[in-house]
Amino acid sequence: MEARKAPRLTTADGRPIGDNQNALTAGPRGPLLIQDVQLLEQIQHFNRERIPERVVHAKGSGAYGTFTVTNDVTRYTKAAFLSEVGKQTEVFVRFSTVAGERGAADAERDVRGFAVKFYTEEGNFDLVGNNTPVFFVRDPYKFQMFIHSQKRHPKTNLRDPDMQWDFWSLCPESLHQVTILFSDRGIPASYRHMNGYGSHTYSMYNDRGELFWVKFHFKTQQGIKCLTDEEAARLIGEDRETHQRDLYEAIERGDYPRWTLYIQVMTPEQAENFRWNPFDLTKVWPHAEFPLIEVGVLELNRNPENYFAEVEQAAFKPSAFVPGIGPSPDKMLQARLMSYADAHRYRLGVNYQQLKVNRPRCPVHHYQRDGFMAQIEGSGHPNYFPNSIPGSPQDDPIYKEPAWHLGEVIVDRYDSRKDHDDYTQAGNLYRLFDEGQKDRLARAIAASLGQARLEVQKRQLGHFYRADVDYGRRVARALGFDPAAIEAELGIDASVAG
């Protein structure tokens, strides 16, 4: 068999390299020459290879796969990727331990992260959860403090059980999660042998605008398997990467892990009258009252080619929703909507969403620009909104979320211009000016406005007229328009001066 020809080694700029083992020196004993730019490039890049690790969920494993819809849930959501039985969507999943650093052992007693990125035709939907249906705290003020208690003592730099139990003992809402953590399910045998949960309450809404509260459950088809403390200690002594190795090798041999996705559904009326706060992250919904409804099957069937690029740089955030799925009043979720995206911008950069593993598979059009590592191409439209430039991205009312009716409070997007008078005070100010001030105002405006497009000039003239007819006429004349013609074109009733 003919040997495969090796690819040509190049610099990061693409220049072919002739010798990658010997530095350029003045004579065989040196010194080095600064013109050896390929050596400098290697040194400089090496010095910058590490990025900040995640504050939580620092160590993880990931894989690609598919999600296939197996049950019709369109009565609850209009999400396109859930629109019909049999529909498949590409996914990327990252599993993790929560408290440990990047060098932690996989088989430690800890909560496991379970984050799924659905690459849908309407954008990415990230379901960022854990292997437990609840969490330690219900108020976001306590989240940062909780994580501090699970990390290293600021003086000794050691993990400290006194810190952990001091916090838990002062926060009785943690008891549900603590009980799970120290139960037989506290140390999963592998990522394949555990369930995943969205944990929070989310919203779903259908194409009729009907709103539902939901919880997400991923049930492993491999069965639940866990480790005792003794088994975990033995495994850690032999191999600190047990979960990573198990997931990678299972996929490589074609033993693709699968989970069945279910939802629990609660109507707003049920939520309003429920006997405890249904948005409390420390509590579950009883399955007898809110049974699991099958949605589809998640299968992982492809390993990443580059761990750093595809797993370490993968960024999941609870704020990545698609039409038909949204947040809820859960206080912890509300805080996470901001904190996760902010953490990614700090750790990976403001354009982290343009990295391949995070990039949506659908077209993306927005008004965000620039920043480190910007890669947007062909975005010739302006970077402000609203605008009247032909071909610029526009919002579409069909994607507006339904209002939340939370008792007497209605959560909605209220029109900030409705019932507001934007003209009277501007007109009153104009009428305070003497003739010289009015003329100078009109000329100054015309000198600037005259450089805008004709349609923009006429649109703005309409506003001047609504403030004061004389105001509009002076600016129109300064722009070279016939006021009578402009008034007819704009439909201005100038029979009574302002």
SSE arrangement:
Layout: H1 37-46, E1 60-69, E2 88-97, E3 112-120, E4 123-130, H2 143-150, H3 161-170, H4 175-181, E5 196-197, E6 202-205, E7 211-220, H5 229-238, H6 242-252, E8 258-266, H7 268-272, E9 293-302, H8 307-312, E10 325-326, H9 331-347, E11 404-406, E12 409-411, H10 424-432, H11 435-449, H12 454-467, H13 469-478, H14 483-490
Antiparallel strand pairs: 1-2, 1-9, 2-3, 3-4, 5-7, 6-7, 6-10, 7-8, 8-9, 11-12
Active site: 57, 130
Binding site for heme: 340
GO molecular function: catalase activity; heme binding; metal ion binding
Can you tell me about this structure?
The chain has helices spanning 37-46, 143-150, 161-170, 175-181, 229-238, 242-252, 268-272, 307-312, 331-347, 424-432, 435-449, 454-467, 469-478, 483-490; strands at residues 60-69, 88-97, 112-120, 123-130, 196-197, 202-205, 211-220, 258-266, 293-302, 325-326, 404-406, 409-411. Strands 1, 2, 3, 4, 5, 6, 7, 8, 9 and 10 form a 10-stranded antiparallel beta sheet that branches. It is globular and about 90 Å long. It has 2 domains: 60-354, Catalase core domain (Catalase HpII,  Chain A, domain 1); 424-490, no CATH class. It has 14 helices and 12 strands. Helix 11 (435-449) packs across helix 13 (469-478). It is an alpha+beta fold and 498 residues long.
